[in-house]
Design a protein that fits this description.
alpha/beta, Rossmann fold, 4 domains, five-stranded parallel sheet, three-stranded parallel sheet
């Protein structure tokens, strides 16, 4: 069979690729090409983002898949997007859901156990869809969204509507002086605009290095270390520009005219 894999570069996908090829199936991998984990795999490839799979229909039709396995259906919108794009173009689509849907995983997050393992298809599902909601105020965007992606477009498609329509966020916004549920997304979009004009961001003096890294930046313990990090790449011929405000508050013209190679923030 000719089998199209959407994703396939992660823990499960790589093993599925190996298993299918061992059984003599022809594998076609549709992925973004941003990971080197599949570099050694001899398989036909289609490079693209599953969020824009409809733009790659011609390539998929040429691949002639008999069946498709989707490794990344995050929600019903993701699933429908793939189904609509592949309708009539493949014999069957298998969507692999995450183990995160099961009650055992929710119990694990809260430090309680007792569920039978290994899980099967009939294992009870967890009703707590958002385990961080209400327990870590203001942290769900950090814990849920940034753990998955820092791409503004992907955030918008996958998460923004869900956060905007969440009942507890609407209640907090209307009656408890909270920001709107979509507010963190727009703050990140503003950052994304500025980051397009920066080659690298170094944060000095952050209390938690893991937070800096989650944001996609690089931590430095001192300004001297930051200068050294920048100098290792730029060499000795570079200039320093001090902005009185972070780039996210500057206009597109202000940032692009400075032509920054690096941005160093001191916290």
């Amino acid at each position: 069979m000719r089998i199209l894999l959407i994703g396939g570069s992660g823990f499960i996908g790589r093993r599925v690729v190996a298993c299918l090829q061992q059984r003599g199936h022809h594998v076609i991998i549709f992925h973004r090409g941003q990971t080197g984990l599949l570099a050694e795999v001899d398989a036909e490839r289609i490079t693209g983002n599953r969020l824009e799979i409809d733009r790659h229909i011609e390539s998929i039709v040429r691949a002639r898949p008999d069946a498709t396995i989707d490794f990344l259906p995050w929600n019903d919108t993701d699933t429908r997007r793939v189904v609509d794009a592949l309708n009539g173009r493949t014999g069957r689509v298998v969507h692999l859901s995450s183990g995160d849907v099961y009650r055992a995983w929710g119990n694990f997050l809260h430090g309680t156990y007792g569920e039978p393992v290994p899980l099967d298809e009939q294992a009870p599902l967890r009703s707590d869809l958002y385990p961080y909601a209400g327990t870590r105020p203001g942290m769900e965007h950090y814990d849920k969204v940034l753990a998955e992606t820092r791409d503004p477009r992907e955030m918008e498609i996958r998460f923004e509507e869900d956060f905007a329509d969440r009942k507890e966020y609407i209640e907090a916004y209307r009656h408890h002086h909270a920001y709107h549920g979509a507010h963190p997304f727009y703050v990140w979009y503003w950052c994304g605009l500025a980051l397009r004009h920066l080659g690298r961001v170094i944060v000095v003096g952050a209390k938690k290095r893991e937070v800096v890294e989650r944001l996609g930046f690089e931590p430095a313990s001192s300004l001297e270390e930051a200068w050294r990090m920048a100098g290792e790449t730029l060499g000795g011929d570079y200039s320093i520009t001090h902005l009185s405000i972070p780039p996210i508050f500057a206009t597109r013209g202000q940032v692009s005219n400075i032509e920054l190679d690096y941005s160093i923030f001191e916290t």
